[in-house]
Design brief:
Length: 182
């Protein structure tokens, strides 16, 4: 059901773990260490990003990393410890696009239980059309709605966020969208 790789070794003592339901009233299988009894809990990860906009155009980044090398994405990546969701979204926008921008409000929250992830995208208002993409990006460029390469979008969360963005803009009102991608 979940595609993340299973834990193999105890983080505490290095012994090979076994997956079983712990004896403490838990109901799920966990990676339990048979030597030191450490229980390794695995929980969803947050992916944070932005929808950077300049006038009627949206910034997309062409991926220089797997998975989906060469496909287009919004700037986004895994949240780091010690930062807020908005700080993580801003950091990813810096790292992947080297863009000048002001970060805005939360726009989409997308649950992807199949891979144990929650993706959060924030609005961002670009201050310049000059970008300095990092090593994870082949190219950063602006697209009007008509120019968006819909068949070349790297991830469904990005595609659906873009669809909500253009639909809201046509309506003249941006909401917050909570979406389950099953
Ligand atoms: Zn152990």
């Amino acid at each position: 059901m979940l595609t993340r790789s299973p834990i193999k070794y105890c983080k505490n003592c290095g012994t090979a773990v076994v997956y079983r339901v712990p004896d403490d009233g838990d109901t799920r299988e966990r990676a339990v260490c048979p030597a030191c009894q450490t229980i390794h809990y695995e929980n969803p990860l947050n992916v944070v990003g932005t929808v950077p906009v300049l006038g009627d155009r949206v910034l997309l980044c062409k991926r220089n990393i797997e998975p989906r090398w060469g496909k287009w994405t919004l700037p986004a990546g895994f949240m780091e410890l010690g930062e807020t969701t908005a700080e993580g979204a801003a950091r990813e926008t810096d790292e992947e696009a080297g863009a000048q921008y002001e970060i805005g409000e939360l726009f989409t929250v997308m649950n992807v239980p199949r891979v144990g992830q929650v993706h959060l995208f924030y609005h961002a208002r670009l201050l310049s059309d000059v970008f300095a993409p990092g090593h994870e990006t082949l190219e950063a460029r602006l697209f009007t709605e008509d120019e968006i390469p819909w068949d070349e979008i790297a991830f469904r969360t990005v595609r659906e966020t873009l669809e909500h963005f253009f639909a809201d803009r046509r309506r003249g009102h941006f909401g917050v969208h909570a979406v389950n991608i099953l």
